[in-house]
Amino acid sequence: MQHRIVVLGAGYTGAFAAGRLARRLHRQDVAITLVNAEPDFVERVRMHQLATGQRLKPRPFSEMFAGTGVELKQARVTGVDADRKLVSVVDVHGADTTEELPYDTLVYALGSAWNPRGVPGTTEHAYEIASRPGATRLRERLEHLGAGQTVVVVGGGLTGLEAATEIAETRPDLDVALVARDALGDWLAPRGRAHLWKVARNLGITVHEHTDVTAVGADHLTTADGRTIPAAVTVWTAGFAVHPIAGGTTLELGGTGQIVVDDTMRSVSHPDVYAIGDAAQVMGPGNKPLRMSCASGLPTAWQAADSIAARLTGGKLPHAPLRYFNQCISLGRKEGLIQYVTADDRAVPAALTGRLAAVYKEVICKSAAWGVANPMFGLPARRRRVVREPAAAGSSARAVA
């Protein structure tokens, strides 16, 4: 009987893990099902580009997984019963009935979405770019926005910086503002902060530092100090929240709602479940949790896929390098910022700026998408036979009859 592996979510981590498992394990021994609501791969790190009208390269899963044995099930996940080892899904093509998918090993990669943080008016009036539907909706709004109108981006993190600079560069006729809770780029080294301010000034971006937004209206923001900031369009990028499905399960979760895993990405409460990417609470260097990002997600997918393969084939457990090297920020199409960091994500003095940094960031984005479609690059292509079942926590693996 084939070992059933179900992967939930086909973002960077889920798609990468599914492809890597398919190329690690013998096709006769495993059945790999990838559950995703959309039929093609979404480059989430490019949603700010989509929002400003740029065309992104289509990446259909039918082409990416051709000949691999991965079965794509286009459906929406509605629940996970981790005790009965069942996933409930609803077909996205209009069927109302719920189907249950049994699994032997589950890879939970449902990721995250935007986080309104409970601020009144955000869900009603703000736009998000954490998803393709959100970015598409913002694009349509920007296309109908007249010259001189104000676009306010809330959030001074990487997503906010990329959104504000992309919009300002693409639409120099608009009045673009950025609202940051702390000082602009306060986590960057001095060289990085200086370049960030230079780009903001050159693009005409108004920066509101040390500002908390307490309410979002149809045409304005209200701040904690009582100010009103005009906003024909509000783009909300103030952090991410994990997918809520895990919260309805018996899986052990951390305070953020992420699934608590060990260093092989296996759930500490359910050893047949692996969590990766934004869905997992992963401890990195210095015993600090990894931040939600593509830079964190791909190494966790690598670790999970190879750990599953090792446990099934009797191989040695791998140890992917769960650490950081740099933070890559696009500041429009012509400028960029590469802030080099320590293993635990603290800025060091070195930084790459300007056009070269923009090219570097583009290479990173293309490499991430290429890696999803080619998860076995540089590794033996030989598929291994399944010889044993994954062991329960605290026990040894047993041989398959």
UniProtKB/TrEMBL annotation:
FAD/NAD(P)-binding domain sequence ranges: 4-291
Classification via Pfam families: Pyr_redox_2
The protein's required cofactors: FAD
Keywords attached to this entry: FAD, Flavoprotein, Oxidoreductase
Gene Ontology annotations of biological process type: aerobic electron transport chain
InterPro entries listed in its UniProt record: FAD/NAD-bd_sf, FAD/NAD-binding_dom, NADH-Q_oxidoreductase
GO molecular function: NAD(P)H dehydrogenase (quinone) activity
Family: Belongs to the NADH dehydrogenase family.
Protein name: NADH dehydrogenase FAD-containing subunit
Source species of the chain: Nonomuraea rubra
